[in-house]
Amino acid sequence: MSVGKSRWDEVGYIISSRYRVLVLERLIESPATPSRIASDSNSSITHVSRALQQLRERSHVELLVSEDRKKGRVYGITDEGRSVWETVNTKNMV
Asked: Which parts of the sequence belong to the HVO-A0261-like N-terminal domain (predicted)?
């Protein structure tokens, strides 16, 4: 299967931030809260939250609970995010 230009644009976007990489790498395992992702990846909650927001804007992750909820927000990886992550992972780009 050929990887199109837009896929490579997304791959480049992901790998240009170690925090975006860490977030997707963690969410590929299972949905998680920002604090769990930060804890599991030894990162600050601020960096994780920013990466989640950026990834959500590009439809790589989604909020799995109500938008109104401020605590205990659970995020999961989307099919698009999974597809881009598989490209990053199989091409050993991180």
From this structure: 9-89
Residue 61's H or E segment, with its range, is: strand 61-63
Query: 93 in a domain, yes or no?
Result: no
How many domains would you assign to the chain? 1
The domain in which residue 41 lies consists of 5-88
Per residue in 43-87, pLDDT (tens digit) is 999 999 999 999 999 999 999 999 999 899 999 999 999 999 999
Q: Tens digit of pLDDT for each residue in 28-54?
A: 999 999 999 999 999 999 999 999 999
CA nearest neighbour of 22 among 83, 90, 91, 88: 88
CATH number at residue 76: 1.10.10.10
The pair of three-digit structure tokens given for residue 38, joined into one six-digit string: 């930060």
